[in-house]
Amino acid sequence: MYGIEDTSRRFGQYRWAELQLFELLGGWATSAADAQVVAMLAAHCHHDAGHADVFAGRTPAVAGLEAAAEPAPLPELVPMLDAARGADGTAARLRAVYQNVLPALAAEYERHLLVTDPRIDGPTVRALTLALHDLADDRSEGEEMLERLSGAAAC
To answer: Which has more confidence, 65 or 142?
Structure first.
């Protein structure tokens, strides 16, 4: 089980990751040529914004821990997000996010769930479970979009 300071730091990092995804996917939604890709990215970036808000609310309000609760990079995701930002073309962007970033973020949330007792910290379990559900759905939809795009490219 994580202590208050570690929990605060982790939720700050989770919030950072979700805000990065919100900005990344939202930016791509404004420039994608395919209307279905635009709609998907727009929906997914709003999921990320919602997760960031939920995680901000899960940050312990304890004097002296304000800095730990601030959004800060999640080290494991930094290179993946950098690669996603540098990806060229819709399919490469989608692969970077849906095959790399989202699975890594889900793994972080799952590790946190494994050490969280729902009897003691039910709201944390609920927040992480909600985010995991959305990440799984978003990843599935992203994979389907990649298949559609690769099928269209083959025609």
So the answer is: 142
